[in-house]
UniProtKB/TrEMBL annotation:
Residues 91-114, 120-148, 149-176, 177-201, 204-232 form the C2H2-type domain. It comes from Anopheles dirus. Residues 9-19 have a biased composition (Acidic residues). One of its GO terms (molecular function) is zinc ion binding. It comes from the Eukaryota. Keywords: Metal-binding, Repeat, Zinc, Zinc-finger. This is C2H2-type domain-containing protein. Residues 1-25 are annotated as: Disordered. Pfam families: zf-C2H2, zf-met.
Length: 241
């Protein structure tokens, strides 16, 4: 019954998003006939002011029927469902035949797998990237000290918007990530994945003694506390190299 309801939601989402899923040329022709509207907030002229305003208000009114993700734009939600949950192949590599659920992943594959297309060279270090998004994240994480996202509750600051958004759950009861094996829920995907290892029987064995732990963080604490000499010797060997 639940699968039928989700299938119906996906079909309704696809019907409502037919403009977004249409070929670019057809979509461009239709949009060209519409009257453009001026946004009083940013000064841009847009085709649909109602779709544009949530980018300023950050109102996540479009909920994914499959996962906790919410989006400001209905078209983006449709593409999310098609790519992440339905795994709809929209493009195949002309070189190797591999299928992709988005144009971005297809272009990234061409650059990484076949050396076709533009790469993104960091101007501050030798690293190169196949995707502009990875290049931007690298600049923020490695070459910037600016933390422009500040938590309104505790004042903690973050470099990235994603980290700031995830941090907000610390101050709430929201636990959107459910374990696939039991009723437990978690505030982060990392916590859920770590917990699910306990169901798989995976344990983390200490390389210096016979102790083993269900969680990697507990193993790290054990090594720092019980084997500081061994850790220091490894550090000295690495520095000597």
């Amino acid at each position: 019954m639940r699968e039928q309801q989700q299938q119906q939601q996906d079909e309704e989402l696809a019907m409502e998003s037919d403009v977004d899923s249409a070929p670019r040329t057809e979509k461009a022709l239709r949009l060209a006939t519409k009257h453009r509207q001026l946004c009083d907030v940013c000064g841009k002229t847009v085709h649909n002011i109602n779709d544009h305003m949530p980018t300023h208000t950050k109102e996540m009114k479009h909920a994914c029927p499959h996962c906790p993700v919410r989006m400001t734009n209905h078209g983006n939600l449709y593409r999310h469902v098609q790519a992440v949950h339905l795994k709809t192949i929209i493009k195949r590599c002309e070189v190797c035949g591999k299928g992709f659920t988005s144009q971005a992943s297809y272009r990234s594959h061409l650059r990484a797998g076949h050396g076709i297309g533009e790469t993104y060279q960091c101007k501050l270090c030798p690293k190169k990237f196949n995707h502009p998004g990875n290049h931007r994240v690298h600049l923020i994480r490695c070459h910037s000290d600016e933390k422009k996202f500040k938590c309104a509750t505790c004042g903690k600051q973050f470099k990235e918007k994603r980290d700031h958004r995830n941090h907000q759950r610390v101050h709430s009861d929201e636990k959107p990530f459910a374990c696939t094996q039991c009723p437990k829920r978690f505030k982060s995907e990392y916590a859920r994945k770590t917990h699910e290892l306990t169901h798989s029987g995976t344990v983390f064995q200490c390389e210096y003694c016979d102790k083993a732990y269900r969680y990697k963080c507990l193993l790290s604490t054990h090594i720092k506390k019980e084997h500081p000499v061994e850790v220091e010797e490894i550090v000295e060997e690495v520095e000597a190299c």
